[in-house]
Amino acid sequence: MKRTIVLGVLLGVFIFAGVYAHAETVIKYAHWNALPQDPYNYVKAFEEKNPDIKVEFIQIPEAEYSQKLRSMAMTGTAPDVLCLWEADLADFVRAGWVLSLDAYIKESKELSLDDFIPAVKQLMELQGSLYGLPWCFATEIAYYNKDLFDKAGVAYPGMDWTWEDFENMAKKLTVESEGKVVQWGCDAIGFQGLWYSLAGTFGDAIVDQEGRFSMGSGTKEFLNRWVSLTNAKVVASPQVTTSGVVSADLFMAGRAAMAFNGSWMTSVYKDITDFSWDIMPLPKAKRSYSTLHTGFFAINARSEAKDAVWKFIEFCMSEEGQELINKAYSNPSARLSVLKKGYYKVEGPKGPRNWDAIERTAEFAEWGYVLLPPGLTFDIVKDFNAAVLGQMSVDDAVQQAIEKAIDILGEERVATE
Amino acid sequence: MKFRVSIALQYVLMVVVAVVMFFPILWIILSSFKPMIEFSVFPPRILPSRLYWYNYAEVFAQSKLLIYLRNTLILIAGNTIGTLLSSSIVAYPLARMRFRGREFIFALILMTMMVPSYVTIIPQYILFKQLGWLDTFLPIIVPAFFAYPYNVFLFRQFYRTIPKELDEAARIDGCSEWGVFVRIIAPLSRPIFITIGILSSIFWWNEFFVPMVFINSEDLKPLSVGIYSFSRTTFVVRWDLIMAMATVMLFPPMMLFLLARRYITEGIKTTGFK
Amino acid sequence: MRSGRAYLFVSPWILGFVLFTGGPILATVALGFTKWDLIGSPVWVGLGNYARLFRKGSEFWTVLRFTAFYTLFSVVFSVGWALFEAALLNSRGVRGTNLFGFFYFIPAVVPMVALTFAFQLILHKELGILNYALSLLGLREGPNWLVDPKVVVWVVVVLNIYTFYAGQMMLIFDSALKEVPKELYEAAEIDGASRIVQFLRITLPAISPILFFNMVTATISSLGTSFTLLYPLTAGGPGKVTQAISLDIYHNAFKTFRVGYACAESVILFLIAAGVSVVMFATSKRWVYYEV
Q: Which CATH number fits domain C56-286: 1.10.10.350, 3.40.309.10, 1.10.4160.10, 1.10.3720.10?
């Protein structure tokens, strides 16, 4: 009995120890990434500069991010500093969960609206007022293995390469041995966003100017081509993707000459030592297109320490904060003045070198599918995969995508051709 | 001679089954020493090129592993104490007393055993939100104090194996029902307490879905959710860190099983199914 | 008087049932008639959600079909495998069963999340160790284990042998087999019955209540833990091929915020569970003593 009491008391102490203490201002901050290690820990850098403010960090896994933040906001337990995804920002604005930053930015000496990449301003215009500042950005690009190109005697892709170039290169770079493919022209799609970005290069708006879901003939054409490349074993067969990311990477293993992926993969591939590689914008089919990714720092309308929150956001957006963030995640800054400094260019021994590819992509890339609910876009990708596997026809997959969009978004937010 | 062959065949089968069962675990442990780049190589390798301890250093430095561990222990302690107390009490009259509606209650308990948590998770979420319990341990621990049907069932089965003469004698001596339970049934049921205690501990060491829904704060996450959220950085799955963390997670339950195996089998054996 | 006392003992469960099971089920039923995105307030839509669920060509049919398939074959594989392991450990004349028992049980205590991560890599079509091993054995092109729709459904049911409940069942079978009187086998041996005949004629009947009990456990667990296995492993893909109803509820409630729709699905799941439990209950005389 005694032991039970002791255990019970210990348990109580444990629980309360976590809850109490702290006399200074405490703000909570949520993000889907773990905080980077020193010397890039921007939260620690902020705390050192502002000893009266303590930042309590909450990491929410990226697969659950959207839903967790939403449920926290609903219950009034959302963190003070939010880093919201594009699709969520609009809903949070609608629900009145985040503050307008207009007054703050007007008074800020550090930040100016004119200093951001064009897409940021577009989004602000769509929402009428400034509600969030992009913590950095990423985009989707092509990767290629220079050694394999050299071996096959194929010229490297150029900045203006087209889809026809891509198909021809991929076919030449596919190597069979004893009836089995040992080297693919291109890896399977490794990140779900590429389905949308590549469909976008075939002319579909993906999300049109009124913010409506818009996929149709371009998507069909892309899927048909992708299916025949996969059936011809020029492109590797699809892999399992949970939360949109594949398990193993044929490009990294040196078994696929090309791959389409997020620009953040430079931070993984930089450790490659077996072969030289580089990056390119996505090939142009009907037009140049790619998707932008970011998260927006926003102030929780219910926060009791709004000024401390703004201080934190202002620090993260300052050149000092941006430098730490850019270096830690190899993601470029959405502030043009900081972008030019190139802090995000973390190179490995074998690549990448062609950083222009990212800056060029940023010029034409759009928010696109990231403005749609992640639950919807993830579900549609599962159908695209099923189409590539021959489980359903391409037409059915696209038709079903449109129906799902109507189901979730409502008819008024789906454009019909 | 025929006898020898069949024995040899049995050993072969036993080894094959052991390999099938243990290989994934061995693979996790070995992979925990690989740098990220070695997860995508061809041909695939089982052994890391060299022992790469950096993964462990990074896991310990970056993640709140010790805090996750503390939280897991709190969940295990709370749930195990809760379910042992409540389930053992609830099971008592079902095995030892005659009262109106007993069959009905027991039937209801058997039936709720079947209801998956997914059916009730949405309203529970709303309920705990009203109580202000979200992002605390309460939604995970408190229900344990209201008896889990499966454990009630196991307790009841065990109580049935205790000779009835013992409590009848005690009742004649003027012992109350509570007295019979505390003085006679509970002490004699040590093995089933230990068994359920261990099974519950292992269960809560692994449980993923419920804490995933109710816990948000970094400081309150148990290991299972911690490993899941720690593993992702900007759309990249950090296999190296996952495997190191998984390896750290492997050992405590393995140790517990090794140390307490006798109790587990003992408890299960004496649970006295039909 | 004694009844009152008895109910006092049972009261924690009754209270818990009302608060955490019965009440929520009623709430689920009510929410199933509404449309709600967690932000505004619920809007009454009557049977609209059910009409959507069961309309022609609805994906829900695929989900139901897979759920039935998954539950049935998870039970078959996990119970069969657990019995097979226990039988191996109890075969006469072999040593080292303690050591083997350790290896057989140990996956059960490994967090399933960690195992699913490992299986994604082990079962990878091009870079996975399994297909590489098969290629060394002469299989030119290994299957795409987790992606090929015809293969993946079997992979996910087979992986149930690594779950916690499978390990637990193995231990239960193990102790049950040790209880079977040795004399029965000796007598059969004299009659010249083969091992297999002995197993069918002696072992199975002797452990049938345990077998039944384990099948109940396995049914509960495979329905109840499908999320932990499937969500990190396949997330229900490709298409909806491995989308068990648990994943679909989670997807609709917490990912696309169609709470009413998800609640309607939960009601269907509850009806299925209730149906199964009625069957279990009707047969429970075979695995539970009711008399006190």
A: 1.10.3720.10
